[in-house]
Amino acid sequence: QVQLVESGGGLVQAGGSLRLSCAASGLTFSSYSMGWFRQAPGKEREFVARISRSGGSTYYADSVKGRFTISRDNVKNTVYLQMNSLKPEDTAVYYCGSTWSSPEYWGQGTQVTVSS
Predict the structure, then answer these.
(1) Quick check: 93 pLDDT over 90?
(2) Spatial CA neighbour of 49 closest among 96, 2, 114, 107
(3) CB atoms within 10 A of CB 8
(4) Bridge partner residues of 79 (DSSP)
(5) Distance between alpha carbon 24 and the CA centroid of its chain, in Å?
(6) Contact, 95 vs 45, CB < 8 A?
(7) Number of Cβ atoms within 10 Å of the Cβ of 60
């Protein structure tokens, strides 16, 4: 059974930082591109960042480029999202997922709230 478990969310002031983690089990982690997505209240889920299987390539939404960094540890089966210079508009539930192959896998999400 595949499980993706996010952690690290919380309440932070604008300009602050958070580091999200997503621990994977039940799959050959290094065989999957992994990503982070987010969903704000009343909005659709949107792409945030993606990392290739080896970690050698990364991709970001324009809204987070230069502020967020995605990374992975294929020994620990974990993907990370370092979020710096946080803004109130970054407030959302953040999900890790593998959506570039079938079947898709999603975590349960972790809440990030940025106060102004």
Answers:
(1) yes
(2) 96
(3) 16
(4) 22, 72
(5) 12
(6) yes
(7) 17
Q: What is the DSSP letter of 83?
A: E
Q: Look-up: residue for tokens 């946080």?
A: 86
Residues 47-73 pLDDT 10s: 999 999 999 999 999 999 999 999 999
Distance of CA 39 to the CA centre of its chain: 11
Tens-place pLDDT, residues 7-33: 999 999 999 999 999 999 999 999 999
Q: Which 3 state secondary structure label does DSSP give 15?
A: coil
In angstroms, rounded to a whole number, what is the distance separating the alpha carbons of residues 94 and 109?
5
Can you read off the two tokens belonging to residue 95?
């999900």
- 97-113 pLDDT, tens digit each: 998 888 899 999 999 99
Q: Which amino acid is present at 20?
A: L
- Residue 103: cis peptide before it, omega within 30 degrees of 0: yes
